[in-house]
Amino acid sequence: MAETEIRNYTLNFGPQHPAAHGVLRMVLELDGEVVERADPHIGLLHRGTEKLAETRTWVQSVPYMDRLDYVSMMCNEHAYCLAVEKLLGVEVPIRAQYIRVMMDEVTRILNHLMGIGSHAFDIGAMTMILYCFREREDLMDVYEAVSGARLHSAYYRPGGVYRDLPDTMAKYQPGRFKNEKTVAKMNEARQGSLLDFLEDFTERFPKYCDDYETLLTENRIWKQRTVGIGVVSPERALALGFTGPMLRGSGIAWDLRKKQPYEVYDRVEFDIPVGKNGDCYDRYLVRMAEMRQSNEIIRQCIAWLRENPGPVITDDLTVAPPRHAKLKTGMEELIHHFKLFSEGIHVPPGEVYAAIEHPKGEFGVYAVSDGANKPYRVKLRAPGFPHLAAMDELARGHMLADVTALMGTLDLVFGDIDR
């Protein structure tokens, strides 16, 4: 019998593959259908954000942060604003802190809906992504109400937020495809303020979470595709630099909102969901539980914001523009306004690192100022970067079909990995 030579063959997984999330090229070395080696090639979405920040004023870089992890927009802005505020030594008004925490948790739900929906879709569960996008639509309306944009909001500012929460919500209008009766039903929750709309959402959301759990948690196909796949021990997760659900899924209760509280996280009550086995299934359960916890935090923030009106941005005129009414009468205010919008904020010399518990893990901003109106250097710590770096270790020995399950569980977005 003639000898047959068995050779490993190399496969390009992505960037065209629909489960490669747009811009990941992964070179897989396969022995039959078993992955021997996985080599992620990144940089296909590299836009030089860190370099661009050096040629923009401190405030002009805020919209660039939105475009990093483009499903967790406000969280990126938050870390950047915290870094600038640390350098400035500015006190953020308490109402602005509550608004930031509330919007961060709205963003966390948005991120996890996208993550779990697309993860299930990549593995073959179509219904999940349709359900998840239904809820994302309501939260996108919240984004649009506060900032005017559904996606790239640029709502946070060094010193607070751009404006207070609106008193009205946009309403659907009757048209060719929707009659008066349909529109009236759709607008039921939109009669009051943004807080009323969001409160109505938080009352409905636990039921939606139950629906997702019904679809997936005990679904035997879902469990076959996720249980025991991509197991990471607690020690290894720490060694690989995992953060967020990737670390908590392995059983380590590390959450910056609890361990190093920022804004008003020490005033709200919530639990840290933790997994046991460190596999794809446990990480899915952690994300599901996190959405429920975020829902509770939003409810607490709504209750506080209803009772406590106040300023939403610092009154330091060297950092934030003066109120419009004062511009008409005060020379001092006019000068500050002109200086802010022509030159921007002058940040004292120094270096700083500020990190937040981003939906994907620890998102950090390291900024260096030389006293000018632009950053000397900005370095961003993307939470997804160490997760993707572990892909080779996670995928080795698994089947080709499991690679999609692993990419879903990493919750990859390449805006912040490639930067």
Question: How would you characterize the overall build of this protein?
Answer:
The relative contact order is 0.18. It is built from 18 helices and eight strands. Strand 6 (350-358) and strand 7 (361-369) form a beta hairpin. The chain is mainly alpha-helical and 419 residues long. It has a three-stranded antiparallel sheet. Helix 4 runs antiparallel to helix 12 (280-307), helix 5 (126-147) runs antiparallel to helix 7 (194-216) and helix 7 (194-216) packs antiparallel against helix 12 (280-307). Helices cover 48% and strands 11% of the residues.
In short:
The protein has helices at 49-53, 62-66, 73-88, 94-123, 126-147, 180-186, 194-216, 220-226, 234-239, 245-248, 256-259, 280-307, 324-327, 331-342, 384-389, 391-395, 400-410, 414-418; strands at residues 9-13, 25-31, 34-41, 156-157, 160-161, 350-358, 361-369, 377-381.
Q: Which strands sit side by side, in order, in the main sheet?
A: 1-2-3
**SS-based class:** mainly alpha
Radius of gyration: 23 Å
Principal-axes geometry comes out as: globular
Strand content: 5-15%
Number of distinct beta strands: 8
Helical amount:
40-55%
Low-confidence stretches: none
- Mean of all residue-level pLDDT scores: 89
Number of helices: 18
Largest sheet: 3 strands, antiparallel
**SSE arrangement, N to C:** EEEHHHHHEEHHHHHHHHHEEEHHHH
Distance between the termini: 55 Å
